[in-house]
Amino acid sequence: MIKEIKVKTDKRQQIIDITNQVKKIVKESKVKEGIVSVYVQHTTAALIINENHDPNICKDIINAFDKLVQEDGWLHNKIDNNAAAHIKAAIMGPSQTIPIQDNELQLGRWQSIQIVDFDGPRERIIKVSILPSE
Length: 134
What we know:
Elements: E1 2-8, E2 14-17, H1 19-29, E3 33-40, E4 45-51, H2 56-68, H3 77-80, H4 83-92, E5 95-101, E6 104-105, E7 111-117, E8 123-132
Antiparallel strand pairs: 1-8, 2-7, 3-5, 3-8, 4-7, 5-6
């Protein structure tokens, strides 16, 4: 089973929590045990699992990547001026896998699933696949 989540960002770089949308898909699946794979279909966005309590961590993550990856000097910028977004997303990765037990995501207390958009604002598509245990 593959479901889709659409997220609209409204800033150039933004982190949005999608945990509730993924939880809803898992609940509706009625899968008791297995795994859920969450995958973003874009090369300038990534998926992370991180803290959901302090919103400053999202700002810290974006600021850290801005320090790690400069905006200028990349060959790809000659095409559409977003090479840094591609590099940041490639470092973070496009997917996350979370165990399911008793029809619930097995995230830690402070963990949430978040999409990181480095080249917004845009509409992003996230595919959610559930694989039941045998």
